[in-house]
Amino acid sequence: MKRGLCVVATVVAMAALSMSPASAKFISGASDDRKCDRPAAGHARVKPGYEELDMGTVTRAQQRKMERQFRVAMKDAKTHRGTTIRVNTRFHVIRSDSGAGNVTNAQIDAQIAVLNNAFRGDSSPAAAPTPFRFRLASVDRTNNSDWYSWSLADDDDPAKQALYQGNTRTLNIYTANLEGGLLGYAYFPVPSPQYLDGVVLLNESLPGGTAAPYNEGDTATHEIGHWLNLYHTFQNGCATPGDRVNDTPYQDDGNNIFSCNTALDTCPAKPGNDPVKNFMSYGDDPCLNRFSAGQATRMTNAWNALRA
Fold it and tell me: Mind listing the domains of the chain with CATH numbers?
């Protein structure tokens, strides 16, 4: 199975060209060559020992560009009115030709409940609330053995082109039998073409799946964090600017990222122990239970600026 996802899906500056913000948002530096095996500027979640599958490592140069463009987009953003942001969520269940690999409606309902619990801030007394609430808008099921054995290089484009629905404020979630230790991945907002936008999950990572200890639904929580413009907590390791969120302590980007040891301090020159409980770290599902207040603010700003 081929490694890597050949789309550099960067956040787009709205003021780069003489056009409307809505049009400029969908221009990116992405290549049309889907086989070039370059990393995507979006992130994966993987099991220990499969770090090479995180095809979304963002270089410091890419991050600086994305942040400049984010700041430009925020200048023109309209603040969301009200205290709740409702996200229509469309599930696309991909099965084999024989129907193997199904995700039940009960699992999907449980996944939506996990998301709302996490984004409300009810997952831990230390969790910050966010304004996001997820509403199941539709479920469809497709029997396609090729897409079911999901190859990042070969299936991301055709499957999404066929199944994507909605607009930049619609969350499209795809479940399939992802390779090896890959639990899921997502693009930052907003890729080009638009239909690439969304989250891809290992089907067995949903609540009740067989991918223990990654079967409580927090891969979706993690990936939606990326969909809302969060980096991993270990972005840039111990080097400034880290993950661009002030209240998430720095975290080295070695094998420690899979640890749930709250006493761990891999960046002793920076304040705070490692944020091992944060949804944007790499601990297993029983470990992860919080977003920070700074992450909640960044996600809200990204919604207003990049998903308008």
Answer: 1-235+289-308 (3.40.390.10)
Beta bridge partners of 172: 90
DSSP percent split of the chain into helix, strand, coil, nearest 5? 30, 15, 55
What is the distance between the alpha carbons of residues 308 and 302, in angstroms, rounded to a whole number?
A: 9
Active-site residue, selected from the candidate residues 51, 52, 179, 223? 223
The string of pLDDT tens digits covering residues 134-152 is 999 999 999 999 999 998 8
Active site residue 223: yes
The pLDDT value recorded for residue 43 is 76
Q: Rounded distance, CA 25 to CA 308, Å? A: 10
Flag whether the pTM goes above 0.90. Answer: no
The predicted-structure confidence for 81-113, as pLDDT tens digits, reads as follows: 668 999 999 999 999 999 999 999 999 999 999
Q: Pick the range with the lowest mean pLDDT from 16-25, 135-144, 200-209.
A: 16-25
Write down the residue that tokens 């990572």 correspond to.
Answer: 205
| Cis check: omega of the bond before 93, within 30 degrees of 0 | no
